[in-house]
Amino acid sequence: MLLSLSKRILAKGLCEVKKKLLLFFMIKSIWSNLSLSKQKMTLLQTILYDPKLLIPIVIWSLIWKGLSLWKCGRNNQPRWFVALLIINTLGILEIIYLQWFQKNRNKK
Prior knowledge:
By secondary structure, the chain is mainly alpha-helical. It is about 80% helix and about 0% strand. The protein starts with a helix and ends in a 7-residue tail after the last helix.
């Protein structure tokens, strides 16, 4: 609806300044819908700037990432290796890989 309204307004031949203002407010409204809320942002800032919270999270993530990368490297699973190397999920994807998707080397 907002897009059709803006097309009608632009088609009527408004001056350039009004067109730019309309575009600015359209982009601002879309961006505000996509951006994080203030509560989420303050939680994220708290985690990033408080070493008491950040250091255990980094250690937890590194342990799971190292273990899962080692396992998929030993099991010759290069796609999993690249995915686990690139995607950071605080250990969630790594735990899922170790629990359900790693090859069992004992079965031959």
